[in-house]
Design brief:
Shape: globular
Strand order of the largest sheet: 2-3-1-4-5-6
CATH topology of the largest domain: Rossmann fold
Structural class: alpha+beta
CATH class of the largest domain: Alpha Beta
CATH superfamily of the largest domain: P-loop containing nucleotide triphosphate hydrolases
Radius of gyration: 27 Å
Oligomer: single chain
Number of domains: 4
Number of helices: 10
Number of strands: 28
Strand content: 35-45%
Distance between the termini: 94 Å
Largest sheet: 6 strands, mixed
């Protein structure tokens, strides 16, 4: 009888990798008020999906002894800091990975305490879905409102409301429906969010992985079933090409490349691009990555680009798709989530970090503060810790950006205290200042082939232009006369 063909470990490993790579990935975050059960929910998801190693389970079982929470305190699977375990709260953002036969998941377990709102913003900033928990005994609390609103600000396309601890209210449908209505009324003011609302008990596992036999009145999928089937898009890939230059690579006189991570979109050799804020057009002549030369690259890849022209490009400049230009301006509107004990005050100067670039930034105005209870716009001249407000910011030099709603990668920034280096705010850009012509901010005069050339945005010309600013016009005339170079009729 012929022997069965041997199956090597390498073959099994390669088959496993192929199956895993074929699955799509969903990044989600948990949010809500303190003690709503976020860490317990994640622990239950990990445990019931068989994503906990034996040594982890043994360690958590020992640590659970004496806590009066049953055999296992599932929250300990994510609360890894000693202070978290001692206080029974989440402080830092904990990331966990697990997979089911249908999908891969990365979870960000974020703190519920108000003083750690900054950590919640960090965890949610890279997520595609937020699970906001509510304690069935307490209903919709202020921190749950704040987290739901931040999720909407961050543009998360999917929001799940998990009404937890249903076991403590006897799995009463009336309690669930009341909280469901509260959330729907609150979220309806955001306009674009249509949440999935599910009753669960993280402690007992009801409606977490398997559907609950204690809540037969609820006919929707369990939480994990919903997470496995919710549509996942790739907004970074769908957005226009953007890459901030992190480093100019010049190993010898024959090579000049521009290294960075692709923030959004795709690029291939031969594509027309524009370098901003200078507004110079050029063509991609080469793409290099760690694995060698590429014909094509996409969002998330770290690459080095070579261009058809020798241009004056420095760290922080943005290489963008020629047919989909970002905005370029020294003044813009934004929504700030204030993350520091010292309040934001009009007239203060901070360091603004946007992509690979840092600039000084002046907080010119606070248009309003958002009342997290009512979502009304209240007048304000400062923002305190955890408050959210609409502001206007000015920088000495133009920066290149998109509206956050259109491109998360190029529409976000942070503010840094120049004295302490503490991160004091997370910002979401909502538009260039209407008082400025953002296209004009990209205008640059330079000499090429003996002629004075005007570059505005993606276009450049030596033809006559109308210059509105008399001082700028006089300066240009004097410059042309002094240099004796041909130019447009100024």
């Amino acid at each position: 009888m012929a022997a069965a063909p041997a199956i090597g470990i390498r073959d099994v490993f390669e088959d496993f990798l192929e199956q895993e790579q074929a699955k799509d990935l969903l990044r989600f975050t948990t949010a809500g008020s303190v003690d709503d059960g976020k860490s317990t929910l994640i622990g239950r998801l990990l445990f019931d999906s068989r994503s906990v190693y034996d040594d982890q389970l043994e360690s958590v079982t020992k640590a659970s002894a004496g806590r009066n929470v049953g055999t296992i305190d599932f929250s300990l699977l994510t609360d890894g800091l000693r202070a978290e375990r001692e206080q029974g709260i989440t402080i830092d953002v904990a990331y966990r990975y697990f997979a089911t036969p249908r999908r891969k998941f990365i979870i960000a377990d974020t703190p519920g305490h108000e003083q750690y709102t900054r950590n919640m913003v960090t965890g949610a900033s890279t997520a595609e879905l937020a699970i906001v928990l509510a304690d069935a005994r307490k209903g919709l609390l202020p921190q749950s409102r704040r987290h739901a609103y931040i999720a909407s600000l961050l543009g998360l396309p999917q929001v799940v409301i998990a009404v937890n601890k249903m076991d403590l209210v006897g799995y009463d449908e009336r309690v669930f429906r009341q909280i469901e209505q509260e959330f729907r009324t609150f979220l309806s003011r955001f306009g674009s969010i249509e949440p999935y609302i599910v009753p669960i008990s993280a402690l007992t596992g009801d409606n977490v992985v398997a559907r609950s036999t204690n809540m037969r009145w609820f006919h929707g999928p369990s939480l994990l079933e919903y997470l496995e089937q919710v549509p996942v898009g790739n907004r970074a890939l769908e957005a226009p090409f953007r890459m901030a230059v992190q480093r100019v690579v010049r190993p010898n006189q024959e090579f000049r490349g521009y290294a960075g991570a692709i923030a959004s979109g795709e690029i291939q050799t031969g594509d027309k691009v524009v370098v901003l804020p200078s507004g110079r057009e050029t063509t991609i002549s080469g793409i290099t990555a760690w694995e060698g030369d590429l014909a094509h690259a996409r969002a998330g890849q770290s690459i080095t680009l070579t261009l058809a022209d020798d241009l004056d490009i420095t760290r922080g400049d943005v290489i963008a798709a020629l047919d989909h230009l970002p905005m370029v301006s020294r003044s813009f509107s934004a929504t700030l989530v204030w993350l520091h004990e010292a309040p934001a005050e009009i007239g203060r100067r901070y360091r603004l970090k946007h992509g690979a670039r840092q600039e000084w930034a002046d907080l010119k105005t606070i248009e309003h503060r958002i009342n997290i209870q009512t979502l009304d716009h209240d007048p304000a001249d400062r923002l305190a810790l955890n408050e959210i407000g609409a502001v206007r910011i000015e920088t000495p030099r133009p920066i290149v950006f998109d509206n956050y709603i259109d491109n998360r990668a190029t529409g976000n920034f942070i503010l840094i205290d120049p004295v302490t280096n503490a991160t004091v705010a997370a910002g979401l850009i909502s538009g260039a200042d209407a008082a400025q012509d953002s296209t004009r901010e990209a205008a640059t005069w330079y000499i090429r082939d003996g002629a004075l050339v005007l570059s505005i945005g993606a276009a450049e010309t030596t033809a006559p232009r109308t210059i509105d600013d008399p001082e700028a016009l006089a300066l240009l005339r004097r410059l042309v006369e002094k240099l004796g170079i041909p130019s447009a009729d100024l």
